[in-house]
Amino acid sequence: MTTLIRAAALCALTGVFMLTGCTKPPGAASPDPLSADKYPRIAALEGLDRNLSFATPIIDDSPGGPLSVTVPLRWRSDKEINVQYRFIFFDAAGSPAGPDPAWQQTYLPARSQEFVTGAALAKEATDWRLEVRPSRGEQ
Q1: Which of these, 72, 77, 88, 98, could form a disulfide with 51 (CB 3.0-4.6 Å)?
Q2: Which domain covers residue 113, as residue numbers?
């Protein structure tokens, strides 16, 4: 009988420990030390910053039309590369304007300039950001 009581107590204690383990709160995120106004407008991701340059962006914000941006990019390496890029557009409050942008594929030849273009789908877009990353093979 004592063995049965010990087994029941052990099972109960194990259950309490298991339930207690499930209630541990997640870790708190820390504030980003890089403020939104300091985040690069043209972000070269995953090591591309070593060889990717850009010239002055061409911005078309004509009244009545959506915001459109063309960015001249130059790959400074002797080897060409396939990259993916996406333009993210923001409204006046700094919130993303329009749907989540899809990544586009482009080829950057060695030491040559290419142009990438994006246009906002939402007319309330007033600002933009370009992200470029190495190609992942998806379209």
Answers
A1: 77
A2: 40-134
